[in-house]
Amino acid sequence: MTLPAPHADAVDFVVRRDNLHQHEFLPGAVSAATVPDAGQVVIKVDHFAFTSNNVTYAAFGEAMSYWDFFPAPEGWGRIPVWGFGVVVQSASPDVQVGERLYGYFPMSDYVILQPVR
What we know:
The chain contains one helix and seven strands. It is mostly beta strands and 117 residues long. It has one domain (7-113): Medium-chain alcohol dehydrogenases, catalytic domain (Quinone Oxidoreductase, Chain A, domain 1). A hairpin with a 2-residue loop joins strand 1 (7-16) and strand 2 (19-28). The radius of gyration is 14 Å and the shape is globular. The mean pLDDT is 92.
């Protein structure tokens, strides 16, 4: 998998898959300027909850495939969280810029997703 070039105006929080105590804030893989492919949207994540469930997602990331939801550099993972975001770019006929969404996001400023019904 090839990750997009990092953006200085966005941040991704990552943890070592083999040592959850090690963490980094990396330049974001997605920003507000990212142009989505057909059917995709770019979401600005603005609020999320961090609970014991998220620690479980990290602890069982390999066994339960939680690390597969959001790409990260080799050996690192992006812990999934439940939160809110606003669509800042849309190439989806079903999702408009400015829509507020609740969903499963990474601990990142921005994420690119492909909504489905």
